[in-house]
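Module 6 notes. Inverse folding takes a fixed backbone as the condition and produces residue identities as the prediction. Think of it as a translation problem where the source language is geometry and the target language is the twenty amino acids. Below is one complete input and output pair. Work through it position by position during the lab.
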């Protein structure tokens, strides 16, 4: 099942008012990154893949203050790098190696993200709450994001668990009907003893340089195995809560939260929108993504770590509206699919 979003991320109201020069430079860098993914050899990334233009992992419309000479709060061309580099060297790579002339005179904010990879509450619970460990029986572990039903028959009568493709569908290597266990494989889960759901649908990941927009999948839950409540551990046991079923577009500067398998309940801030760049899927190699949300950690605690992939991200306010599906992370930054794209791609409505 292929997916292309119906809305251009650069047209989202949350980033209107950004100058055409910044948008042109952002799109030029994104196209150069995409060409690099398309033209490289298949397989895992090597050290030489991170040299020169390969050091640039992604680009987005962010806010000043993250680095460079952009005043705090001002819209900024934000470039994400694997290894720290000086601003003059970075600009030279963008203008000369990537041939993005539009960036020659623009202030640039630099974020050292490291190499960005797909990113476990680990107990076995029945019914299993969202935010807890789950995965494909063959060797994946991530997080149950949220529950949903399909938009049309017969899927409108199915209880569906939503997470990432790389968590439920083993990065395209699974097939519909495969067993999904809770907890996930790394946390001791196995099938049939810990069966929670059957793989129902996923959007294939593309590793050929074609743009990816979502990393998502659904599992068809067995009766009594899952609950729409989210949960996290406290000193007194497991705390349950619910979020809103009404999705909302992410906005720069918004405080957001998530509960996931590894770091449990955390809060962060939406740093940038419209991110385009490379996600390294280890044995499969890099995949090019576009239109993504970037969340920055608050304080010293990471917003996410490996195993939190699949978590739903929601506004940290009285409404708790879902805004994204967490799927990858780097140094201090987390990446999420816009929630509206996930719902559209999987043809589902959330149950919360």
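Target side of the pair, the amino acids:
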């Amino acid at each position: 099942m292929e997916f292309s979003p119906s809305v251009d991320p650069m047209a989202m109201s949350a980033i209107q008012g950004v100058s055409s020069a910044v948008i042109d430079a952002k799109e030029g860098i994104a196209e150069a990154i995409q060409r690099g993914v398309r033209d490289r050899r298949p397989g895992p990334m090597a050290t030489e893949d991170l040299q020169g233009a390969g050091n640039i992992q992604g680009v987005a419309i962010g806010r000043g203050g993250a680095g460079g000479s952009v005043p705090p709060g001002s819209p900024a061309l934000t470039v994400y790098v694997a290894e720290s580099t000086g601003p003059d060297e970075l600009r030279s790579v963008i203008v000369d190696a990537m041939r993005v002339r539009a960036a020659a005179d623009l202030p640039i904010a630099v974020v050292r993200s490291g190499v960005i990879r797909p990113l476990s509450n680990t107990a076995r619970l029945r019914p299993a709450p969202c935010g807890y460990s789950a995965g494909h029986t063959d060797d994946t572990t991530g997080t149950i994001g949220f529950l949903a039903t399909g938009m049309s028959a017969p899927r409108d009568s199915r209880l569906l668990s939503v997470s990432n493709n790389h968590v439920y569908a083993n990065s395209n290597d699974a097939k519909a009907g495969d067993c999904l266990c809770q907890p996930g494989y790394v946390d001791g889960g196995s099938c049939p003893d810990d069966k929670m759901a059957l793989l129902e649908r996923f959007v294939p990941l593309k590793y050929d340089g074609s743009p990816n927009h979502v990393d998502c999948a659904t599992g068809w839950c067995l009766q009594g195995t899952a609950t729409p409540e989210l949960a996290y551990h406290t000193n007194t046991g497991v705390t349950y809560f619910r979020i809103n079923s009404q999705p909302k577009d992410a906005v720069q500067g918004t405080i957001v939260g998530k509960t996931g398998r590894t770091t449990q309940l955390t809060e962060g801030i939406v740093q940038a929108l419209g991110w385009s760049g490379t996600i390294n899927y280890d044995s499969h190699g890099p995949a090019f993504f576009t239109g993504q949300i970037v969340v920055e950690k608050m304080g010293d605690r990471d917003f996410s770590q490996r195993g939190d992939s699949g978590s739903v991200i929601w506004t940290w306010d009285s409404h708790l509206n879902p805004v994204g599906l967490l799927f990858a992370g780097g140094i201090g930054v987390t990446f999420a699919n816009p929630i509206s794209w996930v719902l559209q791609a999987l043809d589902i409505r959330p149950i919360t």
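Reference fact for the lab report: The two ends are 26 Å apart (CA to CA).
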